[in-house]
Amino acid sequence: MTKKCIICTKPAVYRIKDTPDFYCDECAEENFGDVSMLIKVEEEAQKLKKYLEKKVNGEIDDEDAEDEEPAPIKEKPKSKKKKVLNKKDDEELDQDDV
Length: 98
Hints:
The protein is α+β, with helices and mostly antiparallel strands. It has one domain. It has helices spanning 25-32, 41-56, 62-68, and strands at residues 14-15, 22-23, 39-40, 83-86, 91-94. Strands 2-1-3 form a 3-stranded antiparallel β-sheet. Strands 4-5 form a two-stranded antiparallel ribbon. The two termini are 38 Å apart.
């Protein structure tokens, strides 16, 4: 499953550490300038792949797994608020506002 840029939906290359925010090369450069502070998605994928290979080969048992397991990438929770269209001035309002 390829992660997508949160701005333009192109395939993501970078991510902000400990967040579910992913960025393509262009959007990362445009919004941050110094992309060296961002985590490369490919590097994280390689770390996870190595971990899984060790786990499958029996090099890591369940007790060691807690120490070596990489942090999971969290997805943004989707809002459960319903959007209501105000016909008077065509502006969206949250269900809580109605």
